[in-house]
Specification:
Elements: H1 2-17, E1 21-23, E2 34-38, H2 43-53, E3 58-63, H3 70-78, E4 81-84, H4 92-102, E5 106-109, H5 116-133, E6 137-143, H6 148-152, E7 158-161, H7 174-193
Parallel strand pairs: 1-7, 2-5, 2-6, 3-4, 3-5
Antiparallel strand pairs: 6-7
Length: 196
């Protein structure tokens, strides 16, 4: 279903808004697992990231509240999304993404939440997962419309991918590694945004 949904949504967005531009796709690791972290404001950037990385499927981390209704839960599960408790993250948050990465899958995390505390938790989660799984983090920035109205206004959609960020294995000084990597990710986001 993931492939069908990606191709279908790609067609719909093309008809509404024209072709999307993907920059630096050649920087993606080939045949190796990685974590992609992307800026996030609406459902449109999630869809566009999936389209940009296609045919590589992304397993999206999504807030558990979206899985409360059975129908929505079934759809999200078929679209490779898995739930996470953002308000009370614990060791179990690492289990699913680590299992996916071990199977050489790609995990998508959107750290730009509605609250600064949530953004930090999600960024830290991505860093800890990358360290434990020994996989790189690929920063991505979406620039474009965030509403149906803006899509119809033909505002251009662009996904820009950055250089791989390699997180060292966590030692006793986990906090320093996390903070340093957080700064690198934030700086990468800003640099990618400035490319437009």
């Amino acid at each position: 279903m993931y492939t069908f949904a990606t191709r279908f949504l790609q067609l719909i967005l093309f008809l509404m808004n024209g072709r999307m531009k993907t920059v630096n796709k050649e920087k993606l690791p080939q045949n190796d697992p990685f974590i992609v972290v992307c800026t996030h404001k609406s459902w449109i950037d999630v869809v566009c990231l999936g389209i940009a990385l296609y045919p590589i499927p992304i397993h999206f981390m999504a807030k558990k509240e979206l899985f409360n209704k059975v129908l929505i839960k079934n759809i999200l599960t078929k679209l490779n999304a898995f739930p996470v408790d953002r308000s009370n993250p614990g060791p179990s948050v690492l289990k699913t993404p680590l299992q996916l990465l071990k199977k050489k899958q790609v995990v998508g995390i959107f750290p730009s939440g509605t609250r600064n505390s949530e953004e930090k938790v999600l960024k830290n989660g991505a860093i800890h997962i990358a360290s434990r799984a020994s996989v790189p983090i690929i920063p991505a920035v979406y620039i474009g419309p965030h509403t149906i109205k803006d899509l119809l206004g033909r505002k251009r959609r662009t996904i820009i991918l950055g250089d791989a960020i390699h997180v060292p294995k966590m030692t006793k000084d986990k906090e320093s590694v996390t903070e340093a990597t957080n700064e690198v990710i934030s700086k990468a986001f800003e640099e990618l945004k400035s490319n437009i």
